[in-house]
Amino acid sequence: MMSKKYLIVGAGFSGAVLANQLSNSLDCHIDIWDERDHIGGNCHTKRDAATGVMVHEYGPHIFNTDKKEIWDFVNSFVEFKPFVNRVKAKYKGKIYSLPVNLHTINQFFNQSYNPAEAKDFIATQADTSIGEPQSFEEQALKFIGKDLYKAFFYGYTKKQWGCEPSALPASILKRLPVRFNYDDNYYNNPYQGIPVNGYTELIEKLLESTKITVTLNEKFQFSKDVLNNYDHIFYTGPIDAFYEYKYGKLGYRTVTFEKHVAQGDYQGNAVINYCDDDVPYTRVHEHKHFAPWEKHDQTVYFKEFSKETEATDVPYYPKRLTDDKTLLLQYRSDAEKEQKISFLGRLATYRYMDMHHVIGEALEYAKLFIKADAGEAVLTAFPNVEN
Ligand code: UDP
Prior knowledge:
Layout: E1 4-9, H1 13-25, E2 28-33, E3 45-47, E4 54-56, E5 63-65, H2 68-75, E6 80-82, E7 88-91, E8 94-97, H3 102-109, H4 115-125, H5 136-143, H6 145-161, H7 170-174, E9 191-195, H8 199-206, E10 212-215, H9 224-229, E11 232-235, H10 239-242, E12 252-263, E13 271-274, E14 283-286, E15 298-308, E16 317-318, H11 322-336, E17 341-343, H12 345-349, H13 355-373
Parallel strand pairs: 1-2, 1-11, 2-10, 7-13, 11-17
Antiparallel strand pairs: 3-4, 5-9, 6-9, 7-8, 12-15, 12-16, 13-14, 14-15
Uridine-5'-diphosphate (UDP) binds near residues 161 and 175.
């Protein structure tokens, strides 16, 4: 039998994990195209020429997962070192601990509450009239009350998302814990770290097979010719772009970075969030602090700004407002009718996904595809996802 020919569009984590798994198990050749001049998608890392610091080119990426198998999987390709993200927040000229924890509460209210006292106090702040929170704002008012919400979430979220938090889903805020102890680890997941030589090396390792050919600077455009040339296409770009925006554009926020180089240590921490409305950027990240095992005399830091995505911008955060979801259903319904095309990852499924979600889904989908190839399962156009 002739070996199969697959095309994967996009060399981010979705595309790379899929290519790795399919090349391991199937008699096939895989072409991966990426429209950028590098692999790794938004996880791409590169040493800064001026300072030698490993830079997360598209903003901070801290790997964290609760699944041992996903942690073991990424660690089987490259070395990770432990990294705990301890974000600070600046508000009205003072620095606070994040995510909201006992220290934040005591700093903000100028108290020295113990956990039980803080819980009782926050209960007096919380809006108990809210049942199941229907928005980001309701989620905040229900769990932390008006004052903490206004200080740490209202201004930051308006800047980040460009709309009122009352228009955003509660799920965005549910990403962040609220703690009544001094644990200031940004994530709850037990496995956390950063690859010693950056993420791009991990992607390179995933793609290290003679069965895989990577082509950069190659923009995909759907055509009958491309479709006929391959046994299957796996598309990880924006789903609305695949269909040439025929129903309209899905909303994304994009971020831009203002780069600065300095001597020594600029802010003493990897990430500081700027929560005031009148500071135009959302956060500042200083990348040498993502690799505390390295020593650098100089430093490079970035002010991050958020804005609506325009034609030439990189789409980052899916907004998923009501109109977006209606559009998404139209695109999905077309996609589900495709015979030889699959849609994977953050952009093709239009969801807010962390690296570990993307990797987990790509692993699962590869299993499904391999089973379907053997006639033991029915392939679906999308991974098994909820909307
Ligand atoms: N957020 C906020 N203030 C902060 C940090 C986060 O209001 O200091 C909100 C904001 O709306 C953000 C969301 O919480 O989009 C999720 O934060 P997370 O840090 O998970 O965002 P990411 O790192 O993915 O940009």
